[in-house]
Specification:
By secondary structure, the chain is an alpha/beta fold. The protein is 51% helix and 19% strand. It has two domains: 74 residues; 226 residues, Rossmann fold (3-Layer(aba) Sandwich), CATH 3.40.50.
């Protein structure tokens, strides 16, 4: 009897121990199964992420190839520059005239006298085969006290246009100042002009313009003001016209502050300097819009 009770107790203890072991094993198996599912889900996410990245890389590779092909098909860029030199005594309005054209947003009230400034304005873009050429006017604006240095540039450099700016009165003038006019005529006396119109300049220069600024100092109609302004500077005009057989010569009367005559000034330079083959559609339209402005006198007829 005692032996049977001992055996029963041992069997029960073994059974209880086995049951606990099995329960723990079951819990562990369930935990492993849950982790396995979690890892499978994470693995699935990583596989999808790798697929997305591979697809993105393939797309980037295709885009790079497309860009390379697009760049190869685009025209090469070139630049053609035409130089215009501006001369005049101090305070004639050279900077207002040139800078306002090169940058229409310029505040003329903030302009100060300069020794030398260079402004650029693109006038056209022309596509020829696979080359896109940008045609640019580069304007050298020499300060009034630097005329001698500017003359040296005329001698040694290729100049496509020359703009001589004179005015009818100094800063703050309310009417024509004859002494100011005479000072400028003396500055460009015949001997000085012979120095300006040397062989190098005449060979390269396509147009010379005398711009008589501050026409608003003369009362009356624009036509009357123009005639009077030219009369004031008739000695200088006569001296310049001696060179008309060698280079295109024009006189334009206007006002840098009001804009009178300025559009025609730059249209004239475009017409005389820029080859017709360099006109794009935008330039043609601008020229048409400005063609109704006052005409300059040219050659012997001034």
């Amino acid at each position: 009897m005692a032996v049977s009770l001992a055996l029963a107790t041992a069997w029960y203890l073994t059974y209880a121990w086995s049951t606990r072991k099995l329960a723990k094993a079951g819990s562990f198996a369930a935990m492993l199964s849950e982790k396995s599912l979690s890892l499978e889900f994470r693995l699935s996410e990583l596989v999808e992420e790798l697929k997305r990245r591979a697809s993105w890389l393939d797309h980037q590779d295709e885009e790079i190839k497309w860009l390379q092909k697009e760049l190869q098909s685009r025209p090469r860029l070139a630049r053609q520059t035409y130089k215009i030199l501006t001369l005049g005594v101090k305070g004639t309005g050279k900077t207002s005239l040139t800078l306002k054209w090169a940058n229409p947003l310029t505040d003329l009230g903030m302009i100060e006298g300069t020794k030398i400034e260079r402004y650029e304005r693109t006038v056209s873009h022309i596509l020829d085969n696979d080359v896109m050429t940008e045609h640019v006017f580069r304007i050298g604006d020499w300060g009034g006290e630097q005329i001698v240095e500017a003359q040296h540039e005329l001698i040694k450099d290729e100049i496509h246009g020359l703009l001589i700016v004179v005015d009818l009165g100094g800063e703050g003038a309310r009417c024509v100042q004859p002494e100011r006019v005479q000072e400028q005529i003396r500055e460009f006396e015949p001997q000085a002009l012979r120095f300006l119109f040397g062989p190098t300049m005449v060979a390269s220069c396509k147009a010379v313009v005398l711009f008589i600024n501050k026409s608003d100092l003369i009362p009356g109609t624009p036509a009357a003001a123009e005639a009077a302004a030219k009369q004031h500077f008739s000695p200088l005009i006569e001296s310049l016209m001696r060179y008309a057989p060698q280079v295109d010569m024009s006189v334009i009367v206007g006002s840098a502050s009001s804009g009178h005559g300025t559009h025609h000034l730059w249209c004239h330079f475009v017409e005389k300097i820029l080859p017709r083959s360099a006109y794009d559609e935008q330039l043609v339209q601008r020229m048409k819009r400005n063609s109704g402005g006052p005409r300059s006198d040219q050659g012997e007829g001034v």
